[in-house]
Structures are given as C-alpha cells and as structure tokens.
Amino acid sequence: MGELVRLTLAGFLGVFRGSFGFAVAATLAAAVMLTAAPSAANPKYAGIVIDAKTGKVLYEDNADAPRYPASLTKMMTLYLVFEAMDSGRISRNTRIPFSRNAAAEPPTKLGVPAGHSITVEQAIKALVTRSANDVATAVAEFLGGSEARFAETMTRKARQLGMASTTFRNAHGLPNSAQKTTARDMARLGIALREHFPQYYDYFSTRSFTFAGRRITSHNNLLGSVKGVDGIKTGYIRASGFNLVSSVSTGGKSIVAVVMGGKTARSRDAHMADLIHRTLPKASTGGDRMLIARGGVAPVLAAALPRSAPVPTERPEEIPVIAYAEEAQGSAARAALAAAPVPRPQVSVEAEGDVDPMRTASTEVKGWVIQVASLPTESDALRLLNETSQRAPTVLADAKPFTEVFEKDGRIFYRARFGGFSGKAEAWSACEDLKRKNVACYAVQN
C-alpha cells in the first residue's frame, strides 16, 4: 500500500500546479487510497471518462446507473442560455428580472431581491461559480415563462442531445425525486457544451467575479490546480453526494470526465484528479470532430415520423402534406386532423411548448431555398427540419432552417425550408445530396 501511495502521489505532482503544492497533493493522494474501489465502497458512486476527440470511453463505473444530478443540472440551464444568445433572442446585456419565487430559492444563491434584475453575463458567471439557485430559477422563468415549462424544454433538449436517461424537473438541481440522469449523459452534455458553444465555453473557466462589491469565487477547486482543467461544473445535494464534471485540454489531448456520489468534496476532487492522471495518456492526439449532433431530433420524436415526407421532386402546385401525419399515425390521426381546429398563424413554438425550439429565421428568407415539406402545424414543420438536419448534418451545415406560413382552401399550413444558399447551383446541388439520403425536396427561388 505504501508503494501505491507513493506512485499515486508522484502522479499527482505531475498534474497539480499553483497553490495546491506538495502538501495538498499528498492529502489528495491519501484520499484516493480511501476510494480506490469507488463503486464497491460507495453505492452512490458513478464515473466515466470520454475522449472528447474520438468519443472513446477511457473509464467507466456505473456510468448508466440513475443518479441525481444536483447542480450539474445548471449545465443544461446554461446550454439553453447559450442557445438563446446564439440565436439572437438575448445578449450578454439583456436584463433578467427576479420574481418573488426566484428570490426565495434557498442557498447557494446570489441574493438578488425580488423586483431587481441582473444581466445575462452576470447570470452566467453566477451559475458557473456560485451555482446560484435563485439565478437558475430567474433564468428559467425569463426564458421559459415558468420554471416547469423551462424544465420541459431542458428534458427535450436532453433527448435531442442523446441523453436518453435524463429527466429535468427544475433548473437548479435542488431535490426532486423525478430529476434523474447518468454519468454518461452528463459527459455527453459536457462534450456538447464544448462543441456547440466554443464562443461561450470560456465562461466555465471563470474562477471569480465581482457582484455588488462582493468577490464571488468558484466552487471548482481543480481550476488552476490540475493541469489542463478548463471547467465545467460541481454539484451537491445530500441524496446525490458530491458531483463533478471536468473538461481537460492539454498536450493536444482532450477528455471530459464525470464523478458522481463523492462522500466529500475533497475525496471527489482527489478521485477526479486521479482519473485525469490515469486516462489522459490514453487519449487521442488526432484532429477534433463533432461527436454530439446539435440539430438532431429526439429518438422518441423521430420514431413517430416517416423516414421521408412525401413531397414532389419538382416544384408543383403547393399541396400540404396531410399524408405526413397519416402515414405516421394511421386513420386515427387522419380523423383527428380533420376535426382539429385550424392552427393559428404566427404562433411561437417556444411559447406553446410543443417541441424543442430550434433556431429558425424569424422572417422570410430571400433567394434560393430548399423545401422539404408543407405541413399542417408549425410543430410538424419544425420536427421535420430537426430530423432533416440530423440526417444530413454535412449537407446542411451552413443552411438556415425556417418556416413559412400560407393558407390553402381556408386552412393554415407551414412550409419547412432551408435557406442561406449562395444561388441556384448551390441549392440544387444540396437538394440532390438530400435526395441521395432519401430526403425528398425541391429547390425554389423565394
């Protein structure tokens, strides 16, 4: 055992930097010896390390066992904040108001009084460093209308990212028996944050910021202490134990690691440092590639959709694709569709909460576009745009999904289209590529 401690300590001294020094490294090395077989000694434990360049699993233990995410939940809250910023719905300077409900959340919190507001950038830093519960609720109410509806959007986004075992019921991670995840799902979310929002990812390396004259410091003790660690998030509630997702980039290698169920913050940090030390040498030094699809539709939605909507290959008279719903669901859907009220034009899908919001143009896109279907509801159109983006991510990498409303025979329908092409030749070429993937389409000048 003495030799094992010596070797572990030597490994720590290779990865720890700055203020930790020899004494802290020795303490953490000893802590690792107490958790050498985490899953055997701790029923709450789960862990995984994934090579962020290849997707290869470098370590796993109980990685698919259900766990409470605690404040790791705020990773998804931040994902949706970044998505809203990326789409132009909000900016860093947008003000987020605090309701009485948000202000009343228990610590850890920023302590903003009801009726006051903070900027989006302040909210991001408060979530990353202080893990502020009041800020998480304020963000949820601001973006989702209510925290419950925002949590539904969080769960839909989880499905879209392939997090099949994750359900959210709130935006902060405070105790809720129905709020579950797995170490593997949290690793996927960590990778998605890095891949999808590189322009905002540096926020996760924030070690402190000043708010209302106070210096707010990060709960993430590995920042600046373990070589290469650049984020992401800590979390704790009594039911979960101490959780941590870490991102590491150094020496041309990149990994995302998850530890859940630590008995103390110190033992969790020590185990994470040990995992980084042991798995980083196995990681690839190859080129980066996208591991988590951004525009995909959740499997539960994709299963309900036909593999390709029945649309003409040449531009015909506009015929709404009623058969789309019929083929997916049969005669019951046909009867329901016939009896359904005419959808209202200009309805916001985010406000209705039907499907996961995807970035779409808010106004009609001019120039050459590709149409993949005309559908009876905006929700159907957005679902198909999501599915098509997932099936042809390379073809549509720079395309702009959008919907257009039109009326036929007294009913409202929605065109599902992609724009952003430089001209006729590019649009036609993209459509041909889609057809080779069994996606029916036609190119048209808008």
From TrEMBL:
Domain (SPOR): residue spans on this chain: 362-446
UniProt cross-references to InterPro entries, sorted A to Z: Beta-lactam/transpept-like, Peptidase_S11, Peptidase_S11_N, SPOR-like_dom, SPOR-like_sf
SUPFAM superfamilies, sorted: beta-lactamase/transpeptidase-like (SSF56601), Sporulation related repeat (SSF110997)
Hydrolase recorded as keyword: yes
Translocase as UniProt keyword: no
GO molecular function: hydrolase activity
Entry keywords, A to Z: Cell shape, Cell wall biogenesis/degradation, Hydrolase, Peptidoglycan synthesis, Signal
Any Pfam family hit: Peptidase_S11
Family indicated by similarity: Belongs to the peptidase S11 family.
Protein name: Serine hydrolase
Species this protein is from: Chelativorans intermedius
